[in-house]
Each structure stands twice: as structure tokens, then as C-alpha cells.
Write a structure and sequence with these properties.
The radius of gyration is 31 Å and the shape is flat. The protein folds into four domains: 11-98, no CATH class; 105-155; 170-234; 269-369, Serine Threonine Protein Phosphatase 5, Tetratricopeptide repeat (Alpha Horseshoe). The protein is mainly α and 375 residues long. It is built from 19 helices and no strands. The two termini are 56 Å apart.
Length: 375
């Protein structure tokens, strides 16, 4: 593609600067979009901005109201982008002038909070964290420090949860990632300190609501699937009572012969039914689905059903690369050793190679293919 200098010569300096301005504006808007927490609203603002720009260009050429139209356009831009631009420019200049001193001050202040916390001066630690919040009201680290002191040190989980719920539900400046962290932390506190699985489940369901389809949402679903009831939580913390062995068992070493200890047998068919019912409510509980697949393979000798369960996990949302590769290796092993189908085994490993070319997983799959015996 050749540069048409004749065409460039026809473009005036003003037009060239205008086009350059559009490019710079587009780049700035793209960076702002990437860093935006509410991308839908950001796109709405972009759409409104485009309409305003088109309208302004048309009205600008209609004297004698050009100045009035310019003022109206400027007001519209300030309403739409005033907050974002002020924050961006402010960060640019402050970081340039203080060399990032704000971050140093924050680290020092939060370090002071931690020091007071370790000394058991919890009220003073919270006051010190509040000073940081007065400077930066959306400082998530300071918010989490206050909440953790309230919950873990002062044993006031309700107060800590109230603080974090306000952040999750009402603070639009806090990123989704931080909100997910706060909700997971609240779930941990509800289980550990309050023994309240219902409240913990509500926290995890909120993660699914705000991050549906993500790995965080799938992880929350899996935690809900493994949630135990309140009685189980209380029993786990109850003091263990020693068992007194009956006399005939105490003297067992004096008896001749070998004592046969019967291992409790678990009915795989009943277990499979329980797993199916559980997965109907919690389809993303991968541990349970994997156990069900193994029962299909080992008890029912049904490779097709076992592989089908693996496929559900491989094609499910939120599965990590490591898990997908592990399941595909399991599939290849089952196809090779149980189904005696080397072609299907090779196909399973080829899926790893196609999905993750040039990775260590692809290299391992290539090596595994060489060990598959042909019939």
C-alpha cells in the first residue's frame, strides 16, 4: 500500500489536525473503556457523544449562533465526561508531580493500621484506616482492613458485613473483582464465625448475579453445591469426646487367630442416584460429576456415559485449562484401556493440541499419543 502524497497535499492543516484529534480522542476513550467498571453505561455515553458531535458540526456552520452552539456542546461534554476526565487528568498530574508519593503514603498509612492491629489496638487501627478513607473514599484495601478488624478481631461480623454490603451494592467506583473478593470473604466469615450457611449462600449467589458466566461465578456455584448445614458446622467445632473401648475389644490382642475387619461397602448404584440428583440442582459441581463418571466406568462398564460426563465439564463454562486437559487425558485413557478404541483416544489428545498449541499441555498430549497401543 503506497502513501498518496498528492492526496495528502490537498488536505488542509486544520483538517489534518482535526483527524489527528479524532485519533487521539479515540485512543483516550478506548483506554477509559478498558478501565471502566460500567462498560454498558460507558458505551451509552459514547453513543450520546457521537450524536452531539454530529449535531455540533451541522449547527456550527449556521451563523450567528455558532458560539451558542459551541457553549451547548461544551456543557454536554462536561456533563457526560467531566468526572472521568477530571479523575484521569488529576491522576496524570499528581503522579507526575509527586513521583507516585500517594502510593507510598497509602502504604505507610495502611502499615500503621496493621501495626496497631497487631498490638490489639483495634479502635485506633480503625481510626487510622478511616484517615486513609478520608483522602481516598474508595480505597478498597482500607475498607477491607476495617471490615477484617471488625469481623476477625472484634468478633462483630454483622458490622463488617454491613460495611462490605454497602460497598458491593452501592459503590459503583469499586471494581467487580474487588466486589467478588468482598463477597467471598463475607461467605467465609459467615461460615467460620456465625455458622450460618444460608447467609454464606446468599453471598455466593450475589457473586453469580454480578459475575454470571465467569470463573468466579462457577467457583461460587461449586461452593454452594458443597455447602453443609448449620448442624454439621457446629458439630465440627464441638469438642471431641474419646471413645471407651469395650472389654472384649480391649483384650483383642490376647486372642488367637486373625481378626477380620469388615470394610463398609458403599452401594455404587445408590451413590450414582444420589450424584445424579445432586447434579440436577448443582450442575457445575465438577468433583461430583467426575465421581459419577468413574462409577459409570468402573461399576457399569459404560465408557460412553462416563465420557459424556467428562464432555459436560470440558464444554462447561468457567473450566480452567488445567482441568480441561486433565479430563481429556482421562478420556483418552478410558477410550484406550476400557473401550479399546485408540482412534478415540488419539482424538481426545488431539483436542488438547488444537486447543492449546505450543504449550506444555500440547507437548504432554503429543507424548501421551506415543504410548497408545493400536489394536
Amino acid at each position: 500500500m503506497f502513501l498518496d502524497f498528492a492526496l495528502l497535499a490537498k488536505i488542509s492543516t486544520d483538517d489534518l489536525l482535526t483527524y489527528l484529534g479524532y485519533v487521539v480522542a479515540a485512543f483516550i476513550l478506548f483506554k477509559m473503556f478498558v478501565n471502566s467498571d460500567n462498560k454498558v453505561m460507558f458505551l451509552v455515553k459514547i453513543g450520546i457523544t457521537i450524536v452531539v458531535v454530529i449535531w455540533f458540526q451541522k449547527q456550527q456552520k449556521r451563523p450567528p449562533y455558532g458560539l451558542l452552539y459551541s457553549i451547548l456542546a461544551a456543557v454536554a461534554f462536561m456533563i457526560l465526561w467531566g468526572g472521568e476526565l477530571a479523575e484521569a487528568v488529576g491522576n496524570l498530574f499528581t503522579s507526575g508531580m509527586d513521583g507516585g508519593k500517594g502510593k507510598v503514603d497509602k502504604t505507610a498509612q495502611l502499615g500503621k493500621v496493621e501495626s496497631l492491629r497487631k498490638q490489639g489496638k483495634y479502635d485506633e487501627a480503625i481510626d487510622a484506616a478511616q484517615l486513609q478513607l478520608k483522602k481516598h473514599k474508595n480505597d478498597f484495601d482500607a475498607i477491607m482492613l476495617i471490615a477484617s478488624i471488625q469481623a476477625e478481631d472484634m468478633q462483630n461480623v454483622e458490622l463488617a458485613a454491613s460495611l462490605l454490603e454497602g460497598v458491593v451494592n452501592h459503590n459503583k467506583k469499586i471494581s467487580k473483582k474487588h466486589k467478588i473478593y468482598a463477597l467471598n470473604t463475607m461467605a467465609d466469615w459467615n461460615l467460620k464465625y456465625l455458622k450460618d450457611p444460608d447467609a454464606a449462600t446468599a453471598n455466593l449467589e450475589k457473586i453469580i448475579e454480578i459475575a454470571g458466566g465467569s470463573k468466579a461465578a462457577v467457583s461460587a456455584e461449586q461452593r454452594i453445591a458443597k455447602m453443609v448445614d448449620r448442624e454439621t458446622l457446629l458439630a465440627a467445632d464441638a469438642p471431641k469426646q474419646g471413645k471407651v473401648m469395650p472389654k472384649f475389644e480391649r483384650d483383642i490382642g490376647l486372642k488367637g487367630g486373625t481378626v477380620q475387619i469388615k470394610k463398609e461397602e458403599i452401594d455404587p448404584e445408590q451413590q450414582a442416584e444420589e450424584y445424579v440428583a445432586h447434579l440436577h440442582e448443582h450442575p457445575n459441581d465438577w468433583d461430583t460429576r467426575e465421581k459419577l463418571a468413574i462409577i459409570y466406568l468402573e461399576h457399569y462398564q459404560n465408557v460412553a456415559c462416563a465420557v459424556e460426563e467428562l464432555e459436560k465439564m470440558i464444554n462447561g463454562r468457567g473450566a480452567s485449562r488445567e482441568d480441561c486437559c486433565r479430563w481429556l487425558h482421562m478420556m483418552a485413557d478410558w477410550q484406550s484401556r476400557h473401550a479399546r478404541n485408540p482412534e478415540a483416544a488419539h482424538a481426545a489428545l488431539d483436542r488438547i493440541i488444537r486447543r492449546y498449541p505450543g504449550t506444555s499441555w500440547a507437548h504432554q498430549a503429543e507424548n501421551a499419543k506415543s504410548y497408545i497401543r493400536e489394536n
